[in-house]
Model the fold of this input.
Amino acid sequence: MTETPPWPPARTAWLVALTLMLANTLAFVDRQALALLVQPIKQDLRASDTAMSLLYGLSFTLFYLGVGIPVARLADRSNRRNIIAISVFTWSLATAACGLARSYMSLFVARLCVGAGEAGFGPSAYSVLADYFPRERLAAAIGVYQMGTYLGGALALLAGGLVATWFPPTQEITLPLFGALKGWHMVFLVLGAPGILLALAVLLIREPARRGATAASTHVPYAALFVHVAARRSAYLGIGIGFALMILVGNGTGAWIPSFFARKFGWSIAEIGLRYGVVVLFCGATGALIGGFLASLMERRGCARGNLTIALIGFVALVPITIGFPLVSSAGLALGLIGAMNFFAGFNLGGGYAVLLDLTPNRMRALVAAGYVVLINLLGGALGPTVVALISDYGFADPQRLPEAIAITCAIFSPLSVLFLLVGMHGLEKARAL
Done:
């Protein structure tokens, strides 16, 4: 019988969580930068709202489907640290390449490469965290990691807004080697550079020992994975689809909030970057941190569904907030509601991921995480921004009706996310009894 290795020292574990949080921050920089720059890119490339939504969602998701599962399979039986480092380097280079795109198709291809780089990151990162932190502290660690979602979004908005003041997005700039570029190109070039250095820092992380019943195995057949998930399908599907729909609402709103402020209230890109960026920074990151630590606290006190109870609170709070913010007549009130939306969206994440990792044997974790990432990117990443755009382009046939398109999307999918999470919570009790 193989002896279980001791858990790594707490200081080392939290340093790893912070490093992965920084990588996650950069992963989300490109996504929100594109949302900030929708208006000038749309004008420059002569694209519709629907075409821009495909850049934000579908292009990114396609390579998640093609690359995510095979790389996760590799991560379940090889060095996850190295996969993370390669992923960070790849998507950072691709983000910079977005700054050299001269056509819609070249920007679409660059976005495909961003998705390819990020596809290997999330599953490997979750698997590493599960071997650095015991179950009762895992939600808190994932909460720290998920802060990067909001720090990245905020950094893209703040830095993008700042760069936009130096290089107006529609202004032409001539650079040596690169020739004539627009101001929006400069935002991507600036935001892509730091990841190349961070990829080197990731190599300082030590690959942790694997734990659990299948930790010593070098290969788990797909059939074993399907049997494991099928026996616990109501838990996996309820939690997975519930969170995917919540992220659909988050991505559907996040992709269009900058355009919402520009069209409804006439804010400039610099104003949007500063005001919305500060809200995302403080509200989203605070929600992820507090939610993760509260979920861990409930688990340590013996609450069997503590992780998902915290998530349910956030899901329910999001229903009226997401429907209401696009419809208010005050920009300040809309921004305040968006702050609450970011807080409660972040509040949910640590506990949900922790439950999935806890349900899954070690050598299946990266693959299950990849399946989860594919699900949330298909439903949330690709569908969310596109549903809003389709309602705006074809339902109303009027870009100025964007606020109503956002509200309709949220009114459909926010309540559905709550219903599926309740199914997952019910299934969790049966799954843990197996």
